[in-house]
Amino acid sequence: MKEFFKWKELPGRIPKKGVTMKVLSGEKGMMVLFDIDPHVEIEAHSHPHEQMGTVLEGEIILKIGQKEKVLKAGDCYVAPSNTLHGARTGERGAHVLDFFSPPREDYK
Amino acid sequence: MKEFFKWKELPGRIPKKGVTMKVLSGEKGMMVLFDIDPHVEIEAHSHPHEQMGTVLEGEIILKIGQKEKVLKAGDCYVAPSNTLHGARTGERGAHVLDFFSPPREDYK
Fold this sequence. Notes:
The structure is a homodimer. With about 110 residues, chain A is mainly β. Chain A is built from no helices and nine strands. Chain A has strands spanning about 5, 15, 20-25, 30-35, 40-45, 50-65, 65-70, 75-80, 85-100. Chains A and B meet through strand 1, strand 6, strand 7, strand 8 and strand 9 of A and strand 1, strand 6, strand 7, strand 8 and strand 10 of B.
Protein backbone atom coordinates (compact mmCIF):
# COMPACT_ATOMS: atom_id res chain seq x y z
CA MET A 1 0.00 0.00 0.00
CA LYS A 2 1.14 3.53 -0.68
CA GLU A 3 1.74 5.65 2.42
CA PHE A 4 2.09 9.21 1.17
CA PHE A 5 -0.25 11.32 -0.93
CA LYS A 6 -0.99 14.89 -1.97
CA TRP A 7 -4.58 16.07 -1.94
CA LYS A 8 -3.99 18.06 -5.11
CA GLU A 9 -2.90 14.91 -6.96
CA LEU A 10 -5.79 12.72 -5.82
CA PRO A 11 -8.63 12.39 -8.33
CA GLY A 12 -11.65 14.56 -7.66
CA ARG A 13 -15.22 13.38 -7.93
CA ILE A 14 -18.39 15.44 -8.12
CA PRO A 15 -21.07 13.70 -6.02
CA LYS A 16 -23.43 16.58 -6.71
CA LYS A 17 -23.31 19.94 -8.48
CA GLY A 18 -21.11 22.35 -6.59
CA VAL A 19 -19.30 19.70 -4.54
CA THR A 20 -15.91 18.17 -5.33
CA MET A 21 -14.59 15.39 -3.12
CA LYS A 22 -11.24 13.63 -2.82
CA VAL A 23 -10.94 10.38 -0.94
CA LEU A 24 -8.08 8.72 0.91
CA SER A 25 -9.16 5.42 2.36
CA GLY A 26 -7.49 3.11 4.82
CA GLU A 27 -8.79 -0.21 6.11
CA LYS A 28 -10.51 1.24 9.19
CA GLY A 29 -11.06 4.88 8.37
CA MET A 30 -11.43 7.20 5.40
CA MET A 31 -10.50 10.84 4.93
CA VAL A 32 -12.55 12.89 2.51
CA LEU A 33 -11.72 16.45 1.49
CA PHE A 34 -14.82 18.32 0.38
CA ASP A 35 -14.67 21.52 -1.64
CA ILE A 36 -18.15 23.01 -1.56
CA ASP A 37 -19.24 25.98 -3.65
CA PRO A 38 -21.35 28.80 -2.23
CA HIS A 39 -25.10 28.22 -1.96
CA VAL A 40 -25.02 24.43 -2.04
CA GLU A 41 -27.33 22.32 0.07
CA ILE A 42 -26.45 18.79 1.17
CA GLU A 43 -29.73 17.30 2.25
CA ALA A 44 -30.08 15.59 5.59
CA HIS A 45 -28.99 11.96 5.47
CA SER A 46 -27.60 9.34 7.78
CA HIS A 47 -25.32 6.33 7.61
CA PRO A 48 -23.91 3.81 10.03
CA HIS A 49 -20.44 5.32 9.58
CA GLU A 50 -19.37 7.77 12.22
CA GLN A 51 -18.41 11.10 10.66
CA MET A 52 -16.16 13.69 12.20
CA GLY A 53 -14.54 16.64 10.54
CA THR A 54 -13.00 20.06 10.59
CA VAL A 55 -13.68 23.18 8.55
CA LEU A 56 -10.43 24.24 6.88
CA GLU A 57 -11.66 27.31 5.01
CA GLY A 58 -14.87 29.22 4.47
CA GLU A 59 -18.12 28.69 6.26
CA ILE A 60 -20.72 25.94 6.42
CA ILE A 61 -24.03 25.65 8.22
CA LEU A 62 -24.14 22.14 9.62
CA LYS A 63 -27.12 20.43 11.21
CA ILE A 64 -26.54 17.30 13.28
CA GLY A 65 -29.65 15.78 14.79
CA GLN A 66 -31.73 18.78 15.90
CA LYS A 67 -28.79 21.14 16.39
CA GLU A 68 -27.64 23.57 13.72
CA LYS A 69 -24.54 25.74 13.80
CA VAL A 70 -22.49 28.00 11.54
CA LEU A 71 -18.97 26.56 11.39
CA LYS A 72 -15.81 28.32 10.27
CA ALA A 73 -12.15 27.40 9.96
CA GLY A 74 -10.99 25.80 13.20
CA ASP A 75 -14.43 24.47 14.08
CA CYS A 76 -15.00 20.73 14.24
CA TYR A 77 -17.84 18.29 14.77
CA VAL A 78 -18.94 14.72 15.32
CA ALA A 79 -21.98 13.14 13.68
CA PRO A 80 -22.51 9.83 15.47
CA SER A 81 -23.49 6.67 13.61
CA ASN A 82 -26.98 6.73 12.15
CA THR A 83 -27.60 10.36 13.10
CA LEU A 84 -29.31 12.60 10.57
CA HIS A 85 -27.04 15.40 9.38
CA GLY A 86 -27.09 17.90 6.56
CA ALA A 87 -25.28 21.04 5.55
CA ARG A 88 -25.50 24.14 3.44
CA THR A 89 -23.12 26.84 2.41
CA GLY A 90 -23.79 30.56 2.23
CA GLU A 91 -21.89 33.26 0.35
CA ARG A 92 -18.46 31.77 0.89
CA GLY A 93 -18.42 28.05 0.24
CA ALA A 94 -16.18 25.81 2.34
CA HIS A 95 -13.29 23.38 2.42
CA VAL A 96 -14.03 20.62 4.88
CA LEU A 97 -11.95 17.61 5.88
CA ASP A 98 -14.11 14.71 7.00
CA PHE A 99 -13.24 11.39 8.52
CA PHE A 100 -15.48 8.35 8.23
CA SER A 101 -15.11 5.31 10.38
CA PRO A 102 -15.45 2.67 9.00
CA PRO A 103 -14.67 3.69 5.39
CA ARG A 104 -17.70 4.35 3.22
CA GLU A 105 -17.89 1.68 0.56
CA ASP A 106 -19.86 4.02 -1.70
CA TYR A 107 -16.95 6.48 -1.70
CA LYS A 108 -14.19 3.97 -2.50
CA MET B 1 -23.19 13.96 23.30
CA LYS B 2 -22.02 17.34 22.10
CA GLU B 3 -21.76 17.74 18.31
CA PHE B 4 -19.87 20.98 17.73
CA PHE B 5 -16.46 22.07 18.97
CA LYS B 6 -13.71 24.60 18.37
CA TRP B 7 -10.14 23.39 18.34
CA LYS B 8 -9.01 26.54 20.13
CA GLU B 9 -11.37 25.83 23.02
CA LEU B 10 -10.42 22.18 23.46
CA PRO B 11 -7.92 21.50 26.24
CA GLY B 12 -4.33 21.00 25.12
CA ARG B 13 -2.06 18.30 26.44
CA ILE B 14 1.70 18.03 26.13
CA PRO B 15 2.59 14.38 25.49
CA LYS B 16 6.24 15.36 25.13
CA LYS B 17 8.29 18.55 25.15
CA GLY B 18 7.56 20.58 22.04
CA VAL B 19 4.29 18.82 21.19
CA THR B 20 0.79 20.05 22.07
CA MET B 21 -2.17 17.86 21.20
CA LYS B 22 -5.92 18.38 21.23
CA VAL B 23 -8.29 15.45 21.02
CA LEU B 24 -11.83 15.05 19.74
CA SER B 25 -13.02 11.50 20.12
CA GLY B 26 -16.04 9.71 18.76
CA GLU B 27 -17.04 6.11 19.35
CA LYS B 28 -15.31 4.73 16.25
CA GLY B 29 -12.69 7.30 15.39
CA MET B 30 -10.65 10.07 16.97
CA MET B 31 -9.29 13.33 15.60
CA VAL B 32 -6.10 14.72 17.09
CA LEU B 33 -4.63 18.10 16.24
CA PHE B 34 -0.88 18.15 16.84
CA ASP B 35 1.11 21.38 17.12
CA ILE B 36 4.77 20.40 16.89
CA ASP B 37 7.63 22.80 17.55
CA PRO B 38 10.70 22.91 15.32
CA HIS B 39 13.39 20.30 15.93
CA VAL B 40 11.22 17.76 17.70
CA GLU B 41 11.61 14.03 17.17
CA ILE B 42 8.75 11.60 17.68
CA GLU B 43 10.40 8.23 17.91
CA ALA B 44 9.23 5.32 15.81
CA HIS B 45 6.32 3.48 17.42
CA SER B 46 3.37 1.39 16.38
CA HIS B 47 -0.14 0.67 17.57
CA PRO B 48 -3.08 -1.39 16.36
CA HIS B 49 -5.00 1.81 15.55
CA GLU B 50 -4.88 2.90 11.94
CA GLN B 51 -3.57 6.45 11.65
CA MET B 52 -4.18 8.80 8.77
CA GLY B 53 -3.57 12.49 8.63
CA THR B 54 -2.92 15.72 6.82
CA VAL B 55 -0.31 18.41 7.28
CA LEU B 56 -2.11 21.74 7.77
CA GLU B 57 0.89 24.02 8.19
CA GLY B 58 4.66 23.78 8.27
CA GLU B 59 6.72 20.77 7.45
CA ILE B 60 7.29 17.34 8.95
CA ILE B 61 9.55 14.45 8.00
CA LEU B 62 7.47 11.34 8.39
CA LYS B 63 8.68 7.76 8.24
CA ILE B 64 6.14 4.98 7.75
CA GLY B 65 7.60 1.51 7.60
CA GLN B 66 10.80 1.90 5.58
CA LYS B 67 9.66 4.96 3.62
CA GLU B 68 10.50 8.50 4.67
CA LYS B 69 9.16 11.70 3.15
CA VAL B 70 9.11 15.42 3.78
CA LEU B 71 5.48 16.48 4.05
CA LYS B 72 4.05 19.98 3.74
CA ALA B 73 0.59 21.55 3.88
CA GLY B 74 -1.74 19.61 1.60
CA ASP B 75 0.18 16.35 1.95
CA CYS B 76 -1.47 13.39 3.60
CA TYR B 77 -0.61 9.86 4.68
CA VAL B 78 -1.81 6.54 6.00
CA ALA B 79 0.04 4.49 8.62
CA PRO B 80 -1.67 1.08 8.64
CA SER B 81 -2.35 -0.80 11.87
CA ASN B 82 0.76 -2.07 13.64
CA THR B 83 3.13 -0.32 11.24
CA LEU B 84 6.18 1.42 12.71
CA HIS B 85 6.06 5.16 12.12
CA GLY B 86 7.93 8.15 13.46
CA ALA B 87 8.39 11.81 12.64
CA ARG B 88 10.61 14.79 13.11
CA THR B 89 10.34 18.47 12.42
CA GLY B 90 13.01 20.74 10.99
CA GLU B 91 13.26 24.51 11.12
CA ARG B 92 9.56 25.17 10.80
CA GLY B 93 7.53 22.91 13.06
CA ALA B 94 4.14 21.67 11.90
CA HIS B 95 0.41 21.57 12.51
CA VAL B 96 -0.90 18.12 11.72
CA LEU B 97 -4.44 16.75 11.89
CA ASP B 98 -4.49 13.01 12.55
CA PHE B 99 -7.31 10.48 12.60
CA PHE B 100 -7.13 7.28 14.59
CA SER B 101 -9.45 4.40 14.08
CA PRO B 102 -10.42 3.02 16.53
CA PRO B 103 -9.96 5.84 19.08
CA ARG B 104 -6.77 5.59 21.14
CA GLU B 105 -7.74 4.85 24.71
CA ASP B 106 -4.47 6.40 25.92
CA TYR B 107 -5.46 9.74 24.37
CA LYS B 108 -9.00 9.92 25.79
